[in-house]
Amino acid sequence: MNSTGIRPGRHRTRGVRRPLAAACVLLAVGLIAAGCADDEAAGQAPEGWGELTTASVSVAHPPSFRARSDAERDRHNAAEARLTEDGRTVGTLTVQLDFTDADSAEQAAIGAEAGVALGSTLTKQSDVRVEGPEDVRDAKRVDFEFTSGGEGDNPPKGTRVSGVIITGLDTHRKTYAVRIDAAEGALPAADLDRIVESVTVR
Description:
Blueprint: E1 50-53, E2 57-61, E3 66-67, E4 79-85, E5 88-97, H1 105-114, E6 121-129, E7 138-147, E8 160-169, E9 175-183, H2 189-198, E10 200-201
Antiparallel strand pairs: 1-2, 2-10, 3-4, 4-5, 5-9, 6-7, 7-8, 8-9
C-alpha cells in the first residue's frame, strides 16, 4: 500500500503538494468496542480504542488497528495505523499535515479532492464540526468510493471501497486531512461516525 492506501489507479495532483494518505478502517465481525455507547463524549477516544496523535490533530481508531512507527509509515503521513486480515492490509487510518496551501476549509477540501486517486468517484462534500478551539471547528467532509486494484497487499481486485476525508485548518492556519477508507461491508456506519466525531484539532 502506498501513500494513498488501497489503490484504484494513478494519482492526480492538481496543485496538491503530495497525495493524501488513505485511512481505511475495518471492525472485525463480532468486535464491538466498549466505548461505542451513545453517551461517549465527542472528541474523546472510546474505551479500549487507540489514538493517533500529531502536533495539531488527533483521531481515535478501533483496537484492531496497529499504529505504525516513523520508520514503517509513508513519509507523507504524520500518523498512520493499519488493519491486516489474511495477510492483506484491509484498512488504514492516516493523518497528513500541511498537505496543500489553503486559506479556508473549503479550499482545503478542494485540495483533498485533488489528492484522491484517479478512478475514484467523488460522491459528496458536506460541512462538519470537529473538536477543538472554536475558530478551527468548521471543517469539510469529502466522501468518495472506488474499486480496489488488488495490487500488493491491497484487498482483492474488484473489492469496492468507500472513503471519507475530514479536512480543514488548524490553529496555525495550516491544512490537515484525516482519511478513512473501508472495504464494502467492513465498517458499521456507527463506528465510522465515532471515528469522525473523535477528530480533534489544535
